[in-house]
Specification:
5 helices; single chain; elongated
Length: 132
């Protein structure tokens, strides 16, 4: 029994030294809350600042809806001037890229206007992080 008792005592001392002390209940960190992106988007969409930003951008959105077909119509009616020196496939490709550029410029102008006029929307997420 002496050897078994010696190894048992040695094992207990070793386990006592290597065992981590369980933290007190006050020190136990709460598990992280589940990030609910859908709820954050819903809160953003229903906020007053988003409504203001959308009403600021609405004219640009409607202009963008009409820009694509309007530009194609304009270029289609103007083709008779260029058909003698520009083949139709090249003219169509040029029209496509030019119409995309017109749309991009309208979207950029709307984005600039919204960010210039609505500073609270940009700061909303930063304030939410500071409150947490």
């Amino acid at each position: 029994m002496g050897i078994q008792n010696y190894y048992g005592n040695l094992k207990e001392k070793f386990l006592r030294l290597t065992r981590k002390e369980e933290p007190a209940k006050a020190e136990i960190a709460h598990p992280p809350r589940i990030h609910n992106l859908g709820e954050e988007i819903r809160m953003l969409v229903h906020s007053q600042s988003f409504e203001k930003a959308y009403s600021t951008a609405a004219p640009f959105l409607f202009a963008n809806l009409g820009a694509w077909p309007g530009y194609w119509l304009f270029r289609g009616m103007d083709y008779h001037v260029h058909r003698s020196h520009i083949p139709l496939p090249i003219y169509i490709r040029q029209t496509y890229y030019q119409a995309k550029m017109v749309q991009l410029l309208i979207v950029l102008a709307g984005t600039y206007t919204v960010f210039r006029n609505t500073t609270r929307l940009r700061l909303m997420n930063a304030n939410r992080v500071a409150k947490s």
